[in-house]
Amino acid sequence: MIPKYKRILLKLSGESLMGKRNYGIDPEVIAQYAQDIKSVTDLGVQVAIVIGGGNIYRGMDSEETGIERAQGDYMGMLATVINGMALQSGLEKIGLYTRLQSAIKMEQIAEPYIRRRAIRHLEKGRVVIFGAGTGNPYFTTDTAASLRAVEIGADVILKGTRVDGIYSADPEVDAHATLYRTISFEEVYRNNLNVMDMTAFTLCQENNLPIIVFDMNTPGNLLKVVIGEKVGTLVTR
Ligand code: UDP
């Protein structure tokens, strides 16, 4: 099998880590993700990961509980570090070498984010997990994924979700909704489709970084995407 991409940025949502639970981390999901990630590093693909935190805490929801937005966002960023540590353990358990880099300094558990160092780890075959999002409130982990992908020169962002790609409408509401195989950045804007938030999306478009949205919860899908099989939706110029 010959991989289509040399260096990928995999975006995993926090929510998908819940599996069948309503909160937190399902160890079966971590184990599945770890196997899938191993299947692509075995091909020599360099893998960087940005992980969300929505399964633990979301800044957007904090105001309802009387916590101001920026404070809640920092709490959300900490949640991504917890998820990153769980994923790191899952990867190491099956023999992968990993590094966790955090956008907020916490020296006892993660390296600080240093771009050149992250690239060096990737070149040495280590999986690099980027925790704490961008390190700034009012951003999302999708934006962190776009930013890090551009910074490290990734060939593509693979956005792992629980749906199998981008649809013309919400398939749960509209029976005629169709799945796009490929779609341009302009078409996504024009049809007001929800791929990533606009900050994240614009960063990809401006830097001509393709995005593939695919179902990460189906084992084997990540490998299929990486070897160029028709899985998910490709957003490109
Ligand atoms: N967050 C932030 N800045 C960032 C990334 C994340 O403030 O650069 C906060 C924000 O509060 C967000 C939470 O972290 O709600 C969890 O991230 P996100 O909702 O993007 O995770 P996902 O939806 O992928 O689980």
TrEMBL record:
Give the catalytic activity. UMP + ATP = UDP + ADP
The residue ranges of the Aspartate/glutamate/uridylate kinase domain are: 6-215
Q: Which GO terms describe its molecular function?
A: ATP binding; UMP kinase activity
For this protein, the activity regulation entry reads: Inhibited by UTP.
* Annotated CDD domains: AAK_UMPK-PyrH-Ec
- Amino-acid positions noted as binding UMP in the UniProt annotation, renumbered to this chain: G53, D73, T134, G135, N136, P137, Y138, F139, T140, T141
Biological pathway:
Pyrimidine metabolism; CTP biosynthesis via de novo pathway; UDP from UMP (UMPK route): step 1/1
Q: Subunit notes for this chain?
A: Homohexamer.
What this protein is reported to do is described as: Catalyzes the reversible phosphorylation of UMP to UDP.
What is the name of this protein?
Uridylate kinase
